[in-house]
Amino acid sequence: MTPQDDKTVALAPLAGVRVLDLSRVLAGPWAGQLLADYGADVIKVERPGAGDDTRAWGPPWHGDPADRAAAYYLSTNRGKRSVAIDLADPQGAAQVRALARHADVLLENYKVGQLAKYGLDPATLSKDNPGLIYCSITGYGQDGPYAHAAGYDFAIQATGGLMSVTGEKDGTPGSEPQKVGVAVSDLFTGVYSVTAILAALLERGRTGRGRHLDAALLDVQVSMLANQASNYLVGGRTPRRMGNAHVNILPYQVFATRDGHLVLAVGNDGQFQRFCEAAGHADVAFDPRYASNPARVERREELVPVLATWLLERSTAEWIALLEPRAVPCAPILELPEVFRHPQVVARGAQIERDGVPMVASPIRFDGERAVADRRPPHLDEHGDAIRSALARGDGWPAA
């Protein structure tokens, strides 16, 4: 496929918004990248010499050995400028305060209270910039008995209940709690933070006042439990791991086929009827024991083995060809090379390049066009000289 190139960038709904990104690793940088994609001018402040921790999280690497970048870092820092500043140095802290005076948004994910030592806490910075929207991202939040504990996505998936409902059910091979294959607590926290920042920017347009936003990975993870949390709170029963099956819907899981696997995602009784007809067992859909979703869920243990024998009669491709025209939701399970060759992924322009760096575009389209920053992820301190010179001249926020 041919990735979307740099010339397609045309949208900047957040043009003029200035973001000071003091965050590292994933949740904060993910929020900063989203804001940059939407047109904000994002300055990323990094540790001299080392930079963001993810710069060293390789292999794989991109670029030559003298100036290589970890793929992890590249995934979450598009569209930013980089300046290396030592916050513990009084001069460095003064430089960050100077930037904050002219910023609209500040992102940080330091331990609770740590930035107060350098005069970079929200109370101090808001005195010079009452309109500053200061977003603090931590593992457990700004208060409570765990406020000062370090929070990592893996630990949050465990503590927040996600791992208790992820993985094969007890008694089956490989049955143990599992984390999700990407850092979803971090990523969701980044996205939730952006929604709160946009709400605060809209409010500031009316009031002129900023906000201190408290974004906690644990809070987000508990919120993300969605129907599983509601099932527990309403039903009073502790949800258990069910592998790829759905606790509330059936059939809604992975089935083995003659040559592989198929996701079958039947969401209503009409779809179940069409599935049974396609499989040559129309009578099952009208059997009172299985005709409704609640009945099917109640008889899960007896129905699933029957359906499993049906699925083994055809290949994955044959089932898809049979079910898709009948509007029965199903899908193959693709590995990443197949994902990026998928005709819909190609048609939607999900893979892009910036100065030769391959990456995934922001998923949202505005009037049919994606808003994606036109600047590749920066090298460490790539824009440092220009930013420090502008600060020394008293220019305020350095021009991009």
Fill in the keyword field for this structure.
Rossmann fold, 400 residues, alpha/beta, 36% helix, disordered N terminus, 2 domains, elongated
Itemize the secondary structure elements and their pairings.
Layout: E1 18-21, H1 27-37, E2 41-46, E3 61-62, E4 69-70, H2 71-74, E5 80-84, H3 90-101, E6 105-108, H4 122-128, E7 133-138, H5 153-159, H6 184-207, E8 211-216, H7 217-224, H8 226-235, E9 252-256, E10 261-265, H9 269-279, H10 282-286, H11 293-298, H12 300-311, H13 316-323, E11 330-331, H14 336-339, H15 343-347, E12 351-354, E13 357-360, E14 365-366, E15 369-370, H16 384-392
Parallel strand pairs: 1-2, 1-6, 2-5, 6-7, 7-8
Antiparallel strand pairs: 3-4, 9-10, 10-11, 12-13, 14-15
Helix pairs in contact: 1-6, 6-7
Structural features, described:
- The structure is a single chain.
- The chain contains 16 helices and 15 strands.
- The strands form five sheets. A six-stranded parallel β-sheet has the order 5-2-1-6-7-8, sandwiched between helices. The protein has a three-stranded antiparallel β-sheet with strand order 9-10-11, covered by helices on one side. It has a two-stranded antiparallel sheet with strand order 3-4.
- It is of the alpha/beta class.
- It has helices at residues 27-37, 71-74, 90-101, 122-128, 153-159, 184-207, 217-224, 226-235, 269-279, 282-286, 293-298, 300-311, 316-323, 336-339, 343-347, 384-392; strands at 18-21, 41-46, 61-62, 69-70, 80-84, 105-108, 133-138, 211-216, 252-256, 261-265, 330-331, 351-354, 357-360, 365-366, 369-370.
- The protein has two domains: 6-224 and 349-392, Crotonobetainyl-coa:carnitine coa-transferase, domain 1 (Rossmann fold); 267-328, no CATH class.
- Helix content is 36%, strand content 15%.
- The two termini are 32 Å apart.
